[in-house]
């Protein structure tokens, strides 16, 4: 079924789940500061690992390039999860950006089971945060600290939707919302093909 056709009016039995821009912003901010504080506590308790906060060594272009790469990898991991676990086709995946929300996105128009959708949501968190953390451990600096914290806070929308769908059974059908951070969830015993 084409995701562009789905509206709240057309599918009254389908639950629409959305994340508000304010909730996403606040969670992102909270996740950023939690990451900063965790790193500062770890830095204070470790004897051989000290973060260099000197801005003289801060390479703005390298940092911005790394940030762009982080965004691409984050969205590519969503696509990979849709292909692997959601059994989506390449043609059902599209990438873009939403200037209203100030986010890049990967949209999958293929319906999938809730278990696969949860993997799609959390794969970037499970991959980008540990990789950014490894870079921070190997090259402790202001830029790697910022990349680590941004890799964590960039998952705020994914985490927010995961909180909203965490109690749904894994075998329910779900479909990514075509234009907002959110999804459609079909009731038990129903599928998008009906």
Question: Care to describe what's here?
Answer:
This protein has 194 residues and is α+β, with helices and mostly antiparallel strands. It has 5 helices and 6 strands, in the order E-H-H-E-E-E-H-H-H-E-E. It has helices at residues 21-45, 60-84, 114-138, 142-153, 156-165, and strands at 15-18, 93-98, 103-108, 112-113, 173-176, 182-185. The strands form 2 sheets. The chain has a 4-stranded antiparallel sheet. The protein has a two-stranded antiparallel ribbon with strand order 2-3. Helix 3 packs antiparallel against helix 5 (156-165). The longest helix is centred in the N-terminal third of the chain and has 25 residues, at 21-45. The chain is elongated, with a radius of gyration of 19 Å. Residues 1-5 have low confidence and may be disordered.
Order of helices and strands: EHHEEEHHHEE
Shape by Cα distribution: elongated
The secondary structure category is: alpha+beta
Q: Nearest-angstrom radius of gyration? A: 19 Å
What portion of the residues fall into strands of 2 or more residues? 5-15%
Main-sheet strand order equals: 1-6-5-4
The biggest beta sheet is recorded as: 4 strands, antiparallel
Topology, number of strands: 6
Whole-number mean pLDDT = 88
What is the straight-line distance between the termini? 9 Å
- Percentage of residues assigned to helices: 40-55%
């Amino acid at each position: 079924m084409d995701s562009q056709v789905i509206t709240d009016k057309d599918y009254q039995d389908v639950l629409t789940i959305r994340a508000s821009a304010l909730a996403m912003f606040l969670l992102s901010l909270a996740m950023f500061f939690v990451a900063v504080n965790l790193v500062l506590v770890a830095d204070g308790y470790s004897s051989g690992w000290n973060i260099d906060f000197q801005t003289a060594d801060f390479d703005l272009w390298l940092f911005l390039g790394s940030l762009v790469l982080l965004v691409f990898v984050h969205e590519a991991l969503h696509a990979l999860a849709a292909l692997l676990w959601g059994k989506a086709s390449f043609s059902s995946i599209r990438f873009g950006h939403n200037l209203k929300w100030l986010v890049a996105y990967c949209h999958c128009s293929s319906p999938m089971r809730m278990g696969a959708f949860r993997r799609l949501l959390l794969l970037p968190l499970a991959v980008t945060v540990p990789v950014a953390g490894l870079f921070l451990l190997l090259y402790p600096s202001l830029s790697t600290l910022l990349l680590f914290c941004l890799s964590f806070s960039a998952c705020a929308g994914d985490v927010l939707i995961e909180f909203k769908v965490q109690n749904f059974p894994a075998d329910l059908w779900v479909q990514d919302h075509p234009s907002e951070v959110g999804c459609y969830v079909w009731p038990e015993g129903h599928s998008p093909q009906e």
